[in-house]
Amino acid sequence: MPKATASKTSATPDLPEPDNYESALQELEGLVARIESGQLPLGDMLAAYQRGAVLLAFCRGKLEAVQDQIKVLDEGQLKPWTSEE
Predict the structure, then answer these.
(1) CA–CA separation, 46 vs 85, rounded Å?
(2) Is residue 1 one of the residues assigned to a domain?
(3) Positions of the region Disordered (predicted)?
(4) What pTM was estimated for this model as a whole?
(5) CATH number of domain containing 49
(6) pLDDT tens digits for 45-70?
(7) Is the confidence at residue 2, as pLDDT, over 80?
């Protein structure tokens, strides 16, 4: 049974962290398209899903950081976005 615990805690293969939000989003969109195509072998699909989860967490972290900065700029209040036309 210790082997099962060890395999759960082992990290996925080390892939480089995205340079920025835009590159992470682009890679994530590509992975989603490949997964949705249904043409990936099961092992590749699992790896793509795992990488997608990492990219999603990265993107969410970046968005939350920006949102926190906006709150600071708006004196602690998150104001709704209004587009001026």
Answers:
(1) 45
(2) no
(3) 1-20
(4) 0.68
(5) 1.10.287.1040
(6) 999 999 999 999 999 999 999 888 88
(7) no
